[in-house]
Amino acid sequence: RFGNVLGSSGSVVPLFRQQIKEGGPVTLTHPKITRYFMTISEASQLVIQAGAMAEGGDVFLLDMGEPVRIADLARKMVELSGLTVRDGDNPEGDIELSVTGLRPGEKLYEELLIGDNPETTEHPRIMKAREDFLVWPELSRKLNSLNAALDRNDMVAARATLAELVSGYSSTGEVSDLAFTGADTNTAALDVQRARL
């Protein structure tokens, strides 16, 4: 596991670069959101070195240093482009930073390690996660239980099974059991309902 790879597809850096090139605005989901970043070289080294250490089923984490505030990154990219940020302090600036709001499920702070107490490895910047896992027979049983709940359109049971399967799972919103409420239960409606889990 590692954070965002600078310049990779879907990364904020190419997005911000394009938005700056087009005259803005540069869009942020939240002014305080932070993310970890690494270079393509660092990401490649992590994968190769962690692969050499792996014994099977291991999860490794790179020491990524301090998280970067995305608003600071956007501001710095505007300035490095030879432009200025348009804000309350500089209403005549070139590029506006626009806050669009957090997307569903998006967090302000990135958590790279799920478990507690990561173990050190031979490499000073690579740690090994000590995370809970289910042996295949138990995982298979729970997945079958989840599938059965979905086949019955029992969203309460499906959420309960997800809570057992995924450490820290918490569903947002109300259960929308279309079969129970008597709403249209066609396949498309059920697919939408399942997607909300």
From TrEMBL:
InterPro entries: NAD(P)-bd_dom_sf (IPR036291), Polysac_CapD-like (IPR003869), Polysaccharide_Synthase-Rel (IPR051203). Pfam families: Polysacc_synt_2. It comes from Rhizobium aethiopicum. Residues 1-130 form the Polysaccharide biosynthesis protein CapD-like domain. PANTHER family: POLYSACCHARIDE BIOSYNTHESIS PROTEIN EPSC-RELATED (PTHR43318:SF1), UDP-N-ACETYLGLUCOSAMINE 4,6-DEHYDRATASE (PTHR43318). This is Polysaccharide biosynthesis protein. Belongs to the polysaccharide synthase family. Transmembrane segments: none annotated. It comes from the Bacteria.
